[in-house]
Design a protein that fits this description.
The protein is α+β, with helices and mostly antiparallel strands.
Length: 461
């Protein structure tokens, strides 16, 4: 699929999304009494369609910021097609960058300049480690931010994911294919608990997916061990310590005998969807929090709806960290990091209208699917406030699954009490017998545990 065809697909998907939404009304926000917001309250006018491509002018790399100028301004109820790029594309640029104008502009890097200079929330002069602007304190390529008219602190932003599509390789040699990278890296849970030599080691596995959608699985193409890479500025990267470093494939040994006959079911989703936090100006994109961000839950894909508390005017919504597949825990460090195009709808729910709905007193990211509600707990619910001035450094050494589990328990208790009129005793009993808690991720600084409750367990909504 060429780039013209990709854009045509996006606009077709956009039209289908609008038609389906107007015909079916989308997901409803239920009150405890069972009634929903009236359609006239949800959509004041016919939704407007927008397109936000991913290129060096429309992305910010490795951070959220309330000071970023919006790349798009929309109204509540509007539908947006958003392109997103994986920050791991340079693990195999031939397959994931070459021939893709947007990716080429973002990953451009010569001895004179980078397409996107700041990569992370660190100092622009790389005065900490000398790795590059931003120091890699934050790694995700985020498209946006998007300013939503009428969104104010105290409101809740609803983000419906209407569709998700793989971004095909722009290289004619790989027509009809999409590729992704999995990094078993130094931040992975496994890294200091390996049994084979050499140890420790970082390993990249490149996966292939059928971009046409006829096959719904990924297969490994080859893997290689990371060896020191010298970037175009002359900085040597002994480990995967700065995003977007171009891997010189003449320096690596490729192993094509990897995961033979294994098919990995794909479930395309966004690892990062989030709003700008209010606590600091530039926020590392890696640890998630109350504002969403790098939640890394594979359930945040087509058909899902996310709800986020708004902290700054306009919300400043950004999307990125697209994945083809991921297991709960994201144990080795990453998912199958690939590039995706999503179609989303955004709806502002005003603070004054939240009483007696599932959004009442919502101060954490909430996921709704057709069949389930999912709360997301973290080691620290709001690490930026709880850990003080050094929060962005300390969060990496203070996280634990135990504290994330406690936060998930507290959030699910809050959800059941406030949305279902349960007593605390009732909520605790129900959690023990009907809620599935799982480890979302143990690699994002602020570790995550999710709690899932099926809608059919609850009184009819």
């Amino acid at each position: 699929m060429g780039w013209g065809r990709l854009q045509r697909w996006s606009y077709v998907a956009l039209g289908l999304g609008i038609a389906a939404l107007l015909g079916a009304g989308g997901l409803s926000i239920h009150s405890r009494a069972g009634s929903a917001f009236e359609a006239s309250d949800r959509i004041a006018a016919l939704p407007q369609a927008h397109y936000l491509p991913a290129n060096a002018d429309t992305v910010h790399w490795g951070y959220f910021s309330q000071s970023l100028a919006p790349k798009l301004t929309v109204d509540s109820g509007d539908i947006i097609t958003v392109e997103t790029l994986t920050h791991h594309a340079n693990d195999d640029a031939e397959r994931m960058v070459t021939g893709d104008p947007g990716a080429e502009s973002v990953f451009a890097w010569t001895s004179d300049a980078k397409g996107v200079d700041r990569r992370g929330a660190g100092p622009i002069d790389a005065s900490v480690f000398g790795r590059g602007a931003g120091e890699g304190f934050g790694v995700h390529i985020l498209t946006g931010p998007i300013f939503i008219n009428g969104a104010e602190p105290g409101d809740v932003l609803e983000v419906q994911i209407l569709d998700v599509a793989l971004r095909p390789s722009g290289n004619p040699q790989y027509r009809g294919k999409t590729f992704g990278s999995n990094a078993a890296a130094w931040w992975g849970y496994h890294y200091n608990d390996m049994i084979e030599e050499p140890k420790p080691r970082e390993v990249i596995t490149i996966y292939e997916v059928d971009a046409t959608g006829e096959e719904n699985w990924a297969k490994a193409v080859y893997n290689y061990r990371w060896v020191p890479q010298t970037d175009p500025y002359g900085v040597i990267h002994k480990t995967i310590d700065y995003p977007g470093v171009p891997v010189d494939h003449s320096t690596i040994d490729k192993n094509f005998e990897v995961l033979e006959n294994v098919r990995v079911p794909i479930r395309p989703h966004f690892g990062v969807i989030g709003l700008a936090p209010k606590e600091a100006d530039i926020i590392d994109s890696i640890p998630p929090g109350y504002f969403g961000g790098n939640i890394d839950d594979w359930r945040i894909g087509k058909g899902a709806t996310m709800y986020y508390p708004v902290a700054v005017e306009g919300g400043l919504l950004s999307l990125g960290d697209p994945h083809a597949a991921q297991g709960d825990s994201e144990l080795a460090g990453t998912a199958i990091e690939t590039s995706l195009t999503g179609v989303i709808k955004v709806i502002v729910h005003k603070q004054a209208d939240l009483a007696d709905t599932i959004l009442e007193d919502l101060n954490y990211p909430l996921l709704e699917t057709k069949d389930e509600y999912v709360v997301h707990g973290f080691s620290y619910a709001n690490y930026l406030a709880e850990l003080g001035d050094t929060a962005q450094q300390d969060i990496y050494s203070k996280s634990s699954v135990d504290s994330a589990m406690r936060d998930a328990f507290r959030k699910m208790r809050h959800f059941l009490i406030t949305t279902q009129d349960l007593s605390e005793d009732e909520a605790i009993s129900l959690m023990s017998v009907a809620v599935d808690f799982g480890v979302t991720q143990v690699v994002d600084g602020n570790w995550g545990v999710h709690g899932v409750i099926a809608k059919n367990v609850l009184p009819e909504n």
